[in-house]
Design brief:
By secondary structure, the chain is mainly alpha-helical. The protein is built from seven helices and no strands. Helix 2 packs across helix 3 (about 35-45).
Length: about 110
């Protein structure tokens, strides 16, 4: 049977992988999620565990499911479904979709 330290390390490793996939430093990710850099380092190394509130912050800000963090199971996300739908569009429709996405990204960043 695995002990809580094993679970903490598995969860912490997955959080680190998510953070690194976003190309964020611990400081940046901590600020995004409202947690300190030192606490994040302790979580990623398995020395500390996260509360459900902190897990919620991490998942919502990193756009991942709790299943991915806790169980290591990636759910088929909306992005995958959108890509599948987009592949069935005509070239003109795909081009239109790209223009719309660019406009949305400009609004989001501006």
């Amino acid at each position: 049977m695995e002990n809580s330290t094993d679970y903490n390390l598995m969860v912490g490793t997955r959080i680190r992988q998510v953070r690194e996939s976003l190309f964020l430093t611990r400081r940046q990710f901590g600020e995004l999620c409202g947690i300190s850099e030192s606490f994040l380092a302790a979580v990623e190394s398995g020395k500390k565990s996260v509360t459900t509130k902190t897990l919620y912050k991490i998942c919502s800000n990193a756009h991942v499911s709790a299943d991915q963090i806790v169980l290591g199971k990636e759910q088929k996300c909306e992005n995958d479904m959108i890509l599948e739908m987009a592949s069935s569009l005509s070239p003109y429709q795909q081009e239109s979709m790209v223009r719309i996405m660019k406009d949305l990204l400009m609004v989001r960043s501006g």
